[in-house]
Amino acid sequence: MTASGNPQPGQKAVCLLSGGLDSSTAVAIAVSRGFEVYGLTFRYGQRHEKETRSASAVGKHLGLKDHVLVEFDLRKWGGSSLTDEIPVPTDRGSEEMSASIPPTYVPGRNTIFLSFGLAYAETLGADRIFIGVSPVDYSGYPDCREEYLRAFEQMANLGTKAGVEGTAQFKIEAPLLHMSKAEIIRTGLDLGVDYSLTWSCYQGGEDACGRCDSCLLRLEAFRQVGMRDPVRYVDEGFG
Fold first, then answer.
1. For residues 185 and 113, what is the distance between their CA atoms, to the nearest angstrom?
2. For the chain, which residues make up each domain, given as ranges?
C-alpha cells in the first residue's frame, strides 16, 4: 500500500461476490480503490442459485481481472432455510428480524467462504480479501460482526505460509460494515453499479418474492433512496 492508503499499481485483491446488492457494492469499492480484483463466487446448494448468474453478470459489468465459481454442497447436512426444507421467513418487521438468529443463517458459511478466499489470495500473492457484510445483518448473523472478521484476520496471518514468513499481512476488508442499506445503495450508484443485475431474494424463483427478510430490507432501502428497485418482484405490497 502507498502512504495514502491506496494500493500499489497491480496490487491484487480477492473479492467474495454473491451477486447480491451488498457484495456487488463491495466489489465496486475495491475496483474504485484501484485494486486488481479477482472475484470468487460459490454455488453451495443454496435454493436461490439465481444469485450465481447475477454474480457472473456483475463481475463482467465491473470488469474483474478474473472470476472463479467454486462448487460444493451444504445441502448434505442442511440446517438452514437456504439449504434445507426449512421455510424462509416472510412478512417480518425489523424488530422480529433482529430478535434472534434467523433460520436463513447457514452454519459456518462465511468461515468457509473466507477460507476459500484466503487460499485463493495466498496463491495469487494478494493480501486483501473483500467481503460485503453489512450492519443490517449484524444482529442476525454472527459471522457478519466486526469481532468475527478481526478474529478471522488474525487466524489468516497465523495459519498461512505467507503470514508466518512475513511475505504478506492479510487484511479482511469490509467496506460496508458501518453503512446503512440506503447508504450502500447510494455508494454503489455513485460507483456505477447496475443493481438490475443483482439478486437478493432468499427464495428460488425467477422473480424476487418481495416478502423474505432480504427483499423487505432491500425494498425499504430503495424507498429511502427515492428510487424504485430495478429488480422485478412477485409482490411489493410489503415493501
1. 24
2. 12-225
Per-residue pLDDT at 97: 87
pLDDT of residue 217 exceeding 60: yes
- Predicted confidence at residue 163, as pLDDT, reads 96
Helix/strand/coil (H/E/C) assignment for every residue in the chain: CCCCCCCCCCCEEEEECCCCHHHHHHHHHHHHCCCEEEEEEEECCCCCCHHHHHHHHHHHHHCCCEEEEEECCHHHCCCCCCCCCCCCCECCCHHHHCCCCCCCCCCCHHHHHHHHHHHHHHHHCCCEEECCCCHHHCCCCHHHCHHHHHHHHHHHHHCCHHHHHCCCCCEEECCCCCCCHHHHHHHHHHCCCCHHHCCCCCCCCCCECCCEHHHHHHHHHHHHHCCCCCCCECCCCCC
| CATH superfamily of domain region 12-225 | HUPs (3.40.50.620)
Describe the crossing of helices 181-190 and 21-32 by its angle, rounded to 10 degrees: 40
The stretch 41-48 carries a mean pLDDT of 94
Q: How many CB atoms lie within 10 A of CB 79?
A: 15
Torsion of CA 32, 25, 48, 218, to 10 degrees: -160
Query: How far does Cα 212 stand from its chain's mean position?
Result: 17
Instruction: Extract the C-alpha cell encoding 68.
Output: 472463479
